[in-house]
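Incident log, structure service

09:12 report received: a user says their structure output differs between two submissions of the same chain.
09:20 pulled the input from the user's history:
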Amino acid sequence: MKALACQLWLDILKYLEAPHHHEYLALIGALQLNSYPCCPNPNHAIGLAPHTDSLFLTILHQTSNTKGLQFLKKGHGWTSISPISENALVVNVGDLLHILSNGEFPTVYHRVLVDQTKHRVSLAYFFGPQVDSLIVPLISSKDNNIGHVVAPRYRSLTVKEYIKLKAKHLEKAFSFIRI
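09:34 re-ran on a clean worker, output below:
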């Protein structure tokens, strides 16, 4: 997972025209096992409440062929992500990549539902910078169609600062760092 996360990270930096940016951040990964037992009344329970992931990327392996992961699609509501095979991975963009990319990579608002008859298991690999790292929005001419540099949409802050803001304000945390 670490090798895949690092390759995705380098590809994203190349796309953002910031290939050497990785030299300034100490990157870490954490693996989390999620277990969602079957629930006799799934309309009265939720596996994981709606949220965004905080770090750069989350790579998710849905180990059982059970639906449950949903993302909020603008204008359409909650949309299920069906496992397409046992080896498929889902990659979510997190808040810090949203900030670093100056909004070029939007964060993914998602939730997990429980199933009435099937137990669901997933593995999540969270990838991002250490807590003392400074996140500075990257400015690129990709931000508009006329080739001019666009001003940053977010102020620079440390990972620790952002985590504290998000813990206090949840999905409204971006409004406190928007310029």
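09:41 both user submissions now match this output. Likely a transient worker issue. Closing.
09:42 reviewer note: The first helix runs from residue 2 to 15. The helical segments are 2-15, 95-100, 159-169.
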